[in-house]
Known about the structure:
The protein is of the alpha/beta class. It contains five helices and seven strands; from the N terminus they run E-H-E-H-E-E-E-H-E-H-E-H. 39% of the residues lie in helices and 20% in strands. It is globular and about 40 Å long.
Amino acid sequence: MKTVLIVEDDLVNVRVFSKILTKRGGFAVKHTENVEEVIQIVIDGEADLILMDVSLTKSVYQGKAVDGIKITQLLKSNPQTANVPIILVTAFAMAGDRETFLGQSGADGYISKPVVDHQDFVAQIKALLPQE
């Protein structure tokens, strides 16, 4: 069973994503917004894909506030974690945001909130997962 790590500070979104991922996608789900935990989970091979909220309000790394873009950059620049697909999830869905965020972060995908089409949400995740 594939595991999706949800990096999100809004517990309502965590619950919604978890339910969609487990019920519709058949995925196992982990959640944390602690940056050290995120990195450790990925290094330990416990996540097959990451759903990364862009605007994390409480995440801190090495004493500095960080957002999902910065965490994605950290993961993508580390050879131990660079291959894990990361999908940015954000309520910022203005024209050009997708390209800007993907360009800045090096993420593999982008989904805007709220997630309305659950089937499409799961399909986008499955498309980025390494096939057995």
